[in-house]
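About this split. The held-out portion is used to measure sequence recovery: a designer receives only the structure tokens and must propose an amino acid at every position. Recovery is the fraction of positions where the proposal matches the reference. Here is one held-out target exactly as it appears in the evaluation file.
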């Protein structure tokens, strides 16, 4: 029997929260306050680093158990393992197509606008220092095959302790398949996983109450530490990256959703709270659980959401792919390193592999960039120092684009599975139902025959 519905929140007759109590409004205000603090009082802004990092650490603390529980529940709730394999294969095929499109768009944009022309940096004068030096060292030790070998953890506990999403997905898929393989013996465990998922989501709700504080600290530190002048000195590169990412989301992803008869702008508006949260924390992981709730609320089959979204956080990083191709060719232009068309296509082939499996790893963008440059050898790896100063300003855009890409990927896989009701999705996007007080759905235990249907209470989840 379903749990009783939560009481409606106080507010106007519609039952919606007052505007100043909505999370995205509070986070937006915190972002503005953080930018002003870092700009007007740089030392105070830089000192607020622990505030932002602590909040992001609290989110990441919950990401691995959430990924494990949702993937296991997704596999355990399907009627056959054949469906799991089919959904997983279709997801990976789409991820590969999205990554290739993002890399190609980045190459085209950087060659057309040439933001690195005229810099004339001497690679001999570039010194790798601090975190940048460590990222290059990690990248040099990482081959193009790393995402395959790194998928298998040295221990089950280590995957959760290190927060490696790819390894957790590997473990959760094995565990979910084992649950299905033992038949009725595993059904009580599946129900237990669903109950535990509800508890972990409630813990996440408590952590999310501090989201405005975390966003304030993160933005104050970024602006205070690196300064507005750092942003403007490489404004051409930053502007090109933001513009290309916007083009990718609106035109490329918008074209995909148009083929599904879904308006990209309505979809982005539906996910506005998740985008604002990602903007404030510079981490797409902070919105992963909320994104799954929103997509299930659109009527997308639960197993598709719970398999596609977590996997996409390691294999469908559209924003990171754009960044890789832009940054690699920018460094070549800035150091006057000539690159033929064949050499750029060689870079692209390597980046298809180095861009995978980096979700949840600190400095993943730089490690993947260093691994690419070290593998190819035609562009000096020390050139990453040219973009290191503005990386924090571009990380927000990477995370936002990754979030948009994974949202669209889930819709595509659902359509591929003939499980997407575009009419219902559009009606939901237009309706904007009243927001419940509790942001996470209450657990509803139902017969096994009904477990593949979207949860009714998820359709009402709005925050």
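Reference sequence for scoring:
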């Amino acid at each position: 029997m379903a749990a009783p519905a939560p009481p409606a929140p106080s507010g106007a007759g519609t039952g919606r929260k007052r505007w100043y109590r909505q999370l995205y409004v509070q986070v937006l205000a915190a972002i503005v306050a953080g930018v002003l603090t870092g700009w007007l009082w740089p030392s105070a802004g830089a000192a607020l680093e622990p505030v932002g990092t602590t909040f992001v650490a609290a989110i990441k603390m919950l990401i691995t158990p959430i990924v494990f529980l949702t993937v296991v529940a997704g596999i355990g709730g399907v009627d056959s393992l054949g469906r799991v394999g089919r959904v997983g294969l279709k997801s990976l095929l789409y991820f590969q197509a999205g990554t290739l499109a993002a890399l190609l768009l980045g190459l085209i944009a950087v060659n057309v606008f040439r933001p690195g022309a005229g810099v004339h940096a001497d690679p001999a004068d570039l010194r790798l220092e601090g975190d940048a030096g460590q990222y290059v060292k990690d990248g040099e030790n990482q081959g193009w095959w790393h995402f395959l070998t790194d998928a298998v953890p040295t221990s089950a506990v280590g995957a959760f302790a290190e927060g490696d999403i790819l390894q957790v997905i590997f473990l959760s898929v094995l565990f979910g398949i084992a649950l299905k393989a033992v038949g009725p013996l595993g059904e009580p465990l599946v129900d237990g996983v669903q109950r535990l998922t509800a508890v972990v989501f409630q813990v996440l709700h408590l952590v999310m109450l501090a989201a405005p504080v975390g966003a304030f600290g993160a933005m104050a530190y970024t602006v205070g530490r690196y300064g507005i002048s750092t942003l403007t000195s490489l404004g051409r590169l930053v502007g090109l990256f933001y513009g290309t990412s916007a083009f990718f989301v609106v035109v490329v992803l918008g074209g995909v959703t148009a083929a599904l008869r879904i308006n990209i702008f309505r979809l982005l508006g539906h996910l506005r709270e998740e985008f604002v949260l990602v903007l404030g924390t510079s981490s797409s992981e902070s919105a992963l659980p909320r994104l799954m709730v929103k997509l299930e609320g659109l009527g997308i089959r639960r197993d598709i959401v719970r398999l596609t979204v977590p996997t996409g956080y390691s294999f469908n990083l559209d924003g990171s792919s754009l960044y890789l191709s832009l940054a690699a060719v920018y460094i070549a232009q800035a150091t006057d390193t000539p690159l033929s068309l064949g050499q750029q296509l060689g870079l692209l082939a390597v980046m298809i592999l180095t861009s995978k499996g980096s979700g949840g790893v600190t400095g993943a963008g730089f490690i993947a960039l260093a691994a690419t440059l070290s593998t190819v050898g035609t562009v000096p790896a020390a050139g990453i120092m040219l973009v290191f100063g503005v990386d924090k300003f571009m990380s927000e855009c990477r995370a936002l684009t990754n979030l948009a890409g994974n949202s669209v990927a889930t819709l595509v896989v659902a359509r591929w599975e003939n499980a997407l009701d575009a009419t219902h999705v559009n009606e939901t996007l237009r309706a904007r139902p009243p927001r419940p007080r509790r942001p996470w759905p209450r657990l509803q235990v139902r017969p096994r025959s009904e477990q593949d249907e979207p949860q009714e209470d998820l359709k009402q989840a709005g925050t």
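Annotator remark: The domain at 21-460 is CATH 1.10.3860.10 (Proton glutamate symport protein).
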